[in-house]
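Pasting as-is:
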Amino acid sequence: MTDNPIKVGGVETFSTVDFPEKISAVVFMQGCPWRCPFCHNAVLQDTTVDSGFIWEKFVDFLKTRRKVLDGVVFSGGEPLVQDGLKNAIDAVKSLGFAVGLHTGGYRPEHLQKILPLLDWVGFDIKAPLSIEPYTKAIGIPAISQLPKIKQSLAILLQSGVDFECRTTCDPRILSIDDIKEIGNSLSSLGVKKYFLQKYRPIETDTTTTDSDCEKFFLNSELIARLRGQFPVFDIRK
């Protein structure tokens, strides 16, 4: 393994919310090809940024946390951007930790490569699975991206690896009907776990109110519909 197999923007050394039922450290990997308008980690988008983070020092830290942490989550950014991801996962697995991944489905061939090493995946579904709404949600033309996203989801469904799909409900880009459409698509594909996540306005968003963000969760018809479609469904605020 090289001295710095992945480019890391930062880490969270103790988390109870990023890996279901596990206490974890979170590795925020540098680089993302998308420009989602609701992203709170925009500083991680630029692949050329070097934070000076030394991966081997983090591995040394993990060696001291074997009885404290259950796992490590690779988040971002978009972890699948970086070719060194597998080496990093190998290093974590060799220490006995479970490994989770947060991804939007970019580079399905890379997901296929690392999937046997993963214990859980959090798969972000940004919008209804068609070009126009996804373009709005990821901030770049989705015509070349959507097939990758669908392929990644199909790979996950076939793999047997534990995973969930989740959608951040940004009222600037999604409607109640959009969430219904997402639910219909995912349930028809066989997704078992789906979560809605509350959008918290980014710094530059000075117009979205809390009531705008809450409207999805206060719609009893929508929530009842999703509870009926998925064996596991919940709301994250």
